[in-house]
Design a protein that fits this description.
seven-stranded mixed β-sheet, alpha/beta, about 240 residues, 7 strands
């Protein structure tokens, strides 16, 4: 993926959940935090500001390089769920901002996060409610891309892994962004879902863009309504 384009587009969208995601870090005064699926380092930067010692992991080298440049005090590692290169009970907290929705085996990934957390450590994971994700659904509908299936029950996986006090919060907001800028940055970022649009013939790309603008126009003033879910619990 193009990390700079992702930063201009998706990272600003996902930043809305960073404060709620780190609430458990604030409450537990966690020192060692794992930012899993760190992307461009939005969570990493916020956690460092809370005086956390952050290890940031991602499977994309461009993302990691951007995070390393912006946050030189973080430890940056190439890694991805469901296998993490850390000993048991390494971290006081783990946070994953919109990474669990990209994991094929959610229970196995949650088991791995349980393994690397110390007893009493906290876990917080956010993901999209895809039925209320207007910001991307207008592009998907314009391009005829099928909406992915719902994310498996993250809370159930956490309870099964041994986490206690598991709860899921629902967050809704409006993502205010220029329609042209959103289109440009989503396509430029690439990725498995929308990257294929940029590979189409120019006339087909323009046809999809015009259809996207038609579908997105009702949200031009007030922003795209979006919804995220956040599961949290204690090891």
């Amino acid at each position: 993926m193009d990390a700079d384009a992702y930063e201009r587009g998706f990272a600003r969208l996902t930043a809305h959940t960073v404060d709620p995601l780190l609430n458990l870090v604030r409450k537990s005064r966690a020192i060692r935090l794992l930012d899993v699926g760190c992307g461009t380092g939005v969570v990493t930067g916020a956690a460092i500001a809370l005086d956390a010692e952050v290890t940031a992991v991602d499977s994309d080298l461009d993302m990691l390089e951007l995070t390393a440049r912006r946050h030189p005090y973080a430890t940056v590692r190439l890694a991805a769920l469901p296998e993490l290169p850390f000993p048991d009970e390494t971290f006081d907290a783990a946070a994953g901002n919109f990474v669990i929705n990209h994991v094929e085996d959610v229970p196995r990934a949650v088991d791995e996060l349980h393994r690397v957390l110390r007893p009493g450590g906290t876990l917080a994971l956010s993901w999209w409610n895809r039925q209320e994700m207007t910001a991307t659904s207008v592009i998907a509908e314009a391009a005829g891309i099928t909406v992915p299936p719902p994310v498996p029950d993250v809370a159930a996986a956490m309870r099964e892994a041994g986490f206690g006090g598991v709860a899921v919060d629902t967050m809704r907001w409006h993502h205010r962004v220029g329609l042209d800028a959103w289109w440009t940055d989503v396509l430029a970022a690439g990725g498995p879902r929308f990257g294929m649009i940029a590979e189409l013939p120019p006339e087909e790309i323009e046809r999809i863009r015009q259809e996207y603008l038609r579908l997105a126009e009702p949200y031009a003033a007030g922003g795209f309504p979006v919804c995220a879910l956040l599961a949290h619990g204690t090891r």
